[in-house]
Amino acid sequence: GLREKDVTLALAKTLRKSLRERGFDVVLTRDRDHTLSLEERTAIAEGAGGDVFVSVHANASPRAELAGVELFTLQENAERQTLRLAARENGVTPAEVDPLQRLLARLRLSEAGERSSLLARQVHREIGSGMGDRWPSTREPVLKQGPFYVLYLSDMPALLVEAGFVTHRDDARRLRDPEYLHAMAEEIAKGVGRFRDESAP
């Protein structure tokens, strides 16, 4: 069957090209077929000093009928993630986080969450309007909040894009199609570009 990580890598490389064409510097946390831990991805992302973090994936489900594009942003009130962020930032274990450290982490997540929501809305709009005519299943991508650790890499605005379900027959066919991946990358890049333009001082 279609492997999630194959789709992810192909989409990431295509997105890199689309973003570079819009003047972005792009650093991939993975550019070949190997697995990195979340901690290693965190180190790469933070070491690059990025302004935006976009994580692209292919979805999977035991329910073969599930299909479509999903976008996720920070779930700002996820206490476990707040605790992990505070612990990592202060070099302590979660059990050693004090109330002030937790409060500061919550404030940072709140600020990042607002910017993440703007980023998500821009990308959501571009995917829905730019791909819906050819691929109707993308016309109304689902926008959600989720406590994904990958979205808490730092205080940069972050977005996770699930480009389709490898476990759904029609989605899997699209995810194998370079034209679909190119179109998805283009619309994500357009949305990130709009976010940049709206965020400029």
3D architecture notes:
Helix 3 (79-90) crosses helix 4 and helix 4 (99-131) packs across helix 6 (178-199). By secondary structure, the protein is α/β, with parallel strands linked by helices. Strands 1-4-2-3 form a four-stranded mixed beta sheet. The protein contains six helices and four strands. It has helices at residues 4-20, 38-47, 79-90, 99-131, 169-175, 178-199; strands at residues 53-59, 70-74, 142-146, 158-165.
Number of helical regions: 6
From the alpha carbons, calculate the radius of gyration and give it in angstroms: 17 Å
**Spans where pLDDT lies below 50 across 5 or more residues:** none
Going across the major beta sheet, what is the strand order? 1-4-2-3
Give the topology string: H per helix, E per strand. HHEEHHEEHH
- Which percent bin holds the helix content? 40-55%
Residue share in β-strands:
5-15%
Main sheet, how many strands, which sense, barrel? 4 strands, mixed
Strand segment tally: 4
Rough shape? Answer: globular
Average pLDDT for all residues:
87
What is the terminal separation in angstroms? 47 Å
Structural class: alpha/beta
Quick rundown:
The chain has 201 residues and is of the alpha/beta class. The chain has helices spanning 4-20, 38-47, 79-90, 99-131, 169-175, 178-199; strands at 53-59, 70-74, 142-146, 158-165. The radius of gyration is 17 Å and the shape is globular.
